[in-house]
Amino acid sequence: MSGTDTRWLVLRLSAPMLSFGRVSIDQVGPTARWPGSSMLTGLLANALGWDWDDRARLQALQDRLRFGALILREGDTLTDSQNAQLAKADRGWTTRGAPEGRAGASYDAPHRRRRDFLMDAEYRVVLTLALAEAEPTLDRIGAALDRPARPLFLGRKPCLPTRPLRAGEVRGATVYAALAELNCATPCPAAWPKDDGPDGHRVHDVADTRVWSSGLHGGTRALVEGTL
Amino acid sequence: MPEPRFLQIHTLTSYTAALLNRDDSGLAKRLTYGGAPRTRISSQCLKRHWRIAEDPHALHAIDGADAASRSRELVTRKVLGGLGPEPVVAAIEPVFQKAVYGDKGTSKTARQTLLFGDREIAWLRGEAERLVAEAGGDAGAAAKTAEAWAKDFKKNIAAMRDAVALPGGLTAALFGRMVTSDTSANITAPVHVAHAFTVHGEESESDYFTAVDDLSEDEPGADTIQETELTCGLYYGYVVVDLPGLAKNLGPAAADLSGPILHNLVHLVAEVSPGAKLGSTAPYGRAGLMLLEAGDRQPRSLAEAFRDPVPAAAGMAGATDALTEHLAEMDAAYSTGEDRRFLSLRNTDLPGAARGTLKELADWAAALPAQLS
Known about the structure:
The structure holds 2 protein chains of 2 kinds.
Chain A (H helix, E strand, L loop, with lengths): L6 E12 L9 E2 L7 H12 L6 H10 E9 L2 E9 L26 E19 L8 H9 L19 E6 L3 H6 L8 E5 L8 E5 L3 E2 L4 E2 L3 E7 L1
Parallel strand pairs in A: 2-5
Antiparallel strand pairs in A: 1-5, 1-6, 3-5, 3-7, 4-5, 7-11, 8-11, 9-10
Helix pairs in contact in A: 1-2
Chain B lengths: L5 E13 L11 E4 L2 E6 L1 H10 L12 H7 L2 H6 L6 H16 L16 H18 L3 H14 L1 H11 L3 H8 L15 E3 L2 E3 L4 E10 L9 E21 H8 L3 H18 L6 H4 L5 E9 L19 H20 L4 E6 L8 E3 L2 H9 L7
Parallel strand pairs in B: 9-10
Antiparallel strand pairs in B: 1-7, 1-8, 2-3, 3-5, 4-7, 5-7, 6-7, 8-9
Helix pairs in contact in B: 4-5, 4-6, 5-6, 9-10, 10-13
């Protein structure tokens, strides 16, 4: 799986507002500094036209994903305050056979929540897939980014990109080596998986993997932050 | 011409002395872009006003009459079609017709228009297949288990019927619907709306105002003193419609409704203001520029045209020039080949785009779904 010949797709993430959703608690939806594993899995799956219910395929794609990111322009945080008018009678049908209603008593009051975004950020992501021969291949993903099955967005639906996401390819033995091929002019903050490059400045655990069978996030992985 | 899978809608719309969208402190929502703070209108705010607009082009004004005739065949064709054996299917059909269309559902003419998309049809079809399999060829048993099924799932089916009846089903087909606990029942919104922001740095004024009590026996004086924020802005707005996604959500009604929906949506985006403080600021504006693009490449906004803020004095002319220049640069770099139409209050052209009136643009958009293979 390693070797200097490993191919990496380069993704350009650039928009007035984008978001790398972290675990939300209650009405607060924070954003992480780095794009997450489940977010990129969803992004690629969206380009491929997969459905939420393609759980096994989504899990397999996430398991194969190997990636890192660097920041060309750091985004400031924007906290958007959102109100939704919901009614107690609101309900939706489910595939389980019983409708889902709403609990709580705060009616006619709006449902309020906060969502964080990154403003004016510009990122590059390098990604490759383990089991290079398996479907979808890197080539297939690249083609799907050019002509996606659905419009692509960066984290949340209103976060629409200003550029084509696909930004060429690089080669390198590790995530770090692939990021280094991107030649940022000034030192750039970057993040790569532990053991997929040098030690960097610090290592921390990120909870960015989804257990697709349940739809919930679970587990952590060690992410190294440093500069390039 | 590429297949028109995606319709991208770009607008420039001007509002003066208004407070279109507030945050929790009562101030205008903002966004810093290219180092300059701008005022912003959230996508939720825009969508809500397009959804609920009382307007000649309102979504609920779309005539579902043609779609009705197709949607009345929904159970017969999509849910039970192709299932066998025939006596078993015949035995459960009345139950399904009533479950889906209500008590008068066995009479075709009494059925209402329902926008069952892929999600609903898949669930109903799965249930029908299960009941047919369980009956093991016994029509009498099938009728009984189907009755029991309809009873057990009565509430769920009622919730489904509420969700897909016109006109509510139409807004869900456009703007999506989420059931928190069940992603299989969620409808993915085919309309993507970016937050709109001013193409220039924020122009904000704190409006100090008093209200005078003219009827007071005392010397008339200020009865209340308050402050509010008013902003002026030329906003860049961006919307993408996923045409195949819209067709999926509309189900069998797509052939009749996709075109009229796009037609009205183009009008709504150009003409409906995200208004607040209607009585005191009259925030009614129409797009001074609208660019439509149809193509199959990854949709991208043209927001970067305004990352360097347009000088306020340059106004609509400066913004149009910036957009034109950026679009030409994007074409030169990526040659994505979209088919384009535009309307503009200015006499300058946009790269690769044919000029038209709003009506012509809306008609052009309405004709796109028929070009999908």
